[in-house]
Amino acid sequence: MLEPTLILQTAVRAALTASPELLALVPADNVRSGPIRPDRMPCVILSGDQVQYLGRASGGQHVARVFLDVHVWALEDAGTARQIGAACLAALIDPPATDGALIVEWSKPSILWLRDPQPDRAYTHGVMQVEGALQWKA
Q1: Does residue 8 register a pLDDT over 90?
Q2: Please, which residues bridge with residue 85 across strands?
Q3: Percent share of the chain, pLDDT over 90
Q4: What is the dihedral of CA 123, 15, 131, 30, to 10 degrees?
Q5: Would you say 111 and 130 are in contact if contact means Cβ atoms under 8 Å apart?
Q6: pLDDT digits (tens, 9 = 90+) for 60-73
Q7: CB of 92 within 8 A of CB of 119?
Q8: Cβ atoms of residues 71 and 9 within 8 Å
């Protein structure tokens, strides 16, 4: 069985790295999945996935709601981070193309800006939430 969080994570990363607006601000290699603390700046990190299995559909297909966090990090002023966040939002307004699944429902993303817990650092951190219902064949 395909793992729905990996399907969505791959599709979201592909949509982000296909955005010229985002790539003007963040190198493609800095758009990644993994631990949410940044190792290279600026960066976009995909994490925090959650799956709510919804059941089966016709033809032996499965359906699940998948939640994914998209973390935006920048060392520069908050304006740079907000531009990166705006580029991410624009890239994910519509559901991304998936390989091996169909996104049957897509919630428009939202973003929350947070203070860094380490005040001695000049990080700006935003967390965007994306959510979609995926249907795929087992």
Answers
A1: yes
A2: none
A3: 66
A4: -30
A5: no
A6: 899 999 999 999 99
A7: no
A8: no
Helix (H, G, I), strand (E, B) or coil at 84: helix
DSSP character string of 24-81? TTS-GGGEEES-SS-SSSSEEEEEEEEEEEEEEEGGGEEEEEEEEEEEEEESS-HHHH
Q: Mapping DSSP to helix (H, G, I), strand (E, B) and coil, where does residue 127 land?
A: strand
pLDDT digits (tens, 9 = 90+) for 26-39: 999 999 998 888 88
What's the one-letter identity of residue 112? L
- Residue 64's identity, in one-letter code, is A
What pLDDT sits at residue 93? 96
Contact 20, 53 (CB under 8 A): no
Burial 4-40 (b: 16+ CB within 10 A, else e): bbebbbbbbbebbbebeebeebbeeebbbbeeeebee
Beta strand 43-57 with 31-33: parallel, antiparallel or unpaired?
parallel
**pLDDT above 80: residue 46:** yes
